[in-house]
Design brief:
Elements (H helix, E strand, L loop, with lengths): L9 E7 L9 E7 L5 E3 L3 E5 L4 E7 L8 E5 L2 E7 L10 E5 L4 E6 L8 E7 L2 E10 L26 H56 L12 E3 L7 E3 L1
Pfam families: V-set
InterPro entries: CD300_family_receptors, Ig-like_dom, Ig-like_dom_sf, Ig-like_fold, Ig_sub, Ig_V-set
Keywords: Membrane, Transmembrane, Transmembrane helix
């Protein structure tokens, strides 16, 4: 029986006809009373966060033209009228098809949407509970690529030519070092010898210069910057310039 009307109220019988004059049929009786009001297809709904759910509220013909509402229990300011769309933060849409039911759709469920609601047509109300479940965590597996290690180049083989060149370079370097050390040593020895013997030589030269100066006192000469020239080692003559 669909599209019940108030005049459809009354007693109804259903049974099985067995037949026969002395055999009674098997029957049962049902009283149906059609009233004006509303009902909900499913009064408890649940969905995951981010998903959508739809509530269907049915009403009788008498409330076809009545105002349809969807409200959160205890919050009159949250009521939305059928045919109007909720605010952006609620994501709720109501639609009345005027054929005996109107639907409420949560387009994107959020955890805060969990709670009690009620749908109404005129003075008739029906409670509805919505349960939002957390979205399950998804794990992403990361596969690391194996790293390839480049094989090092093999060492070059030692040949006779390379070994001879290496020996020659080594010997030459050693000779240069030794020669430098010998030169430095000779310079040090020469310097010490000069410091030890320069004083007697200078004293001898000074005496000779004084004698010659007395002999050639008339010669104007710069004795401080004079140059002494020995003609030979056996000669006692000294020339000053």
């Amino acid at each position: 029986m669909s599209n019940l009307r108030e005049e459809d109220s009354g007693w109804y019988m259903c049974g099985v006809e067995i037949g026969g004059l002395w055999s009674a049929d098997v029957v049962t009786y049902k009283n149906i009373k059609v009233i004006h009001g509303m009902t909900v297809e499913n009064s408890r709904l649940s969905g995951e966060e981010g998903s959508s759910v739809t509530v269907e509220c049915q009403y009788s013909e008498r409330y076809r033209e009545s105002e349809k509402k969807w409200c959160r229990s205890g919050d009159w300011s949250s009521c939305l009228l059928a045919g109007s769309e909720g605010s952006n933060d609620s994501s709720v849409y109501i639609k009345d098809d005027r054929s005996g039911s109107f639907t409420i759709t949560f387009k994107k469920l959020q955890m805060r949407d969990t709670g009690w609601y009620w749908c109404s047509a005129g003075l008739q109300k029906m409670p509805v509970h919505v349960q939002v479940k957390p979205r399950p965590m998804t794990t992403v597996s990361v596969t690391s690529q194996p790293q390839t290690v480049a094989n090092p180049l093999p060492p070059k083989p030692i040949t006779k030519e390379s070994w001879s060149g290496h020996n020659f370079s080594h010997v030459l370097g050693s000779l240069l070092v030794c020669g430098s050390v010998i030169l430095v040593g000779l310079a040090i020895v020469a310097r010490k010898w000069w410091k030890r013997h320069k004083d007697p030589v200078l004293r001898q030269l000074n005496g000779m210069l004084r004698r010659r100066r007395n002999e050639y006192s008339d010669v104007s000469c710069d004795l401080q910057n004079a140059t002494v020239v020995f003609l030979n080692k056996d000669s006692q003559d000294v020339h000053m310039c």
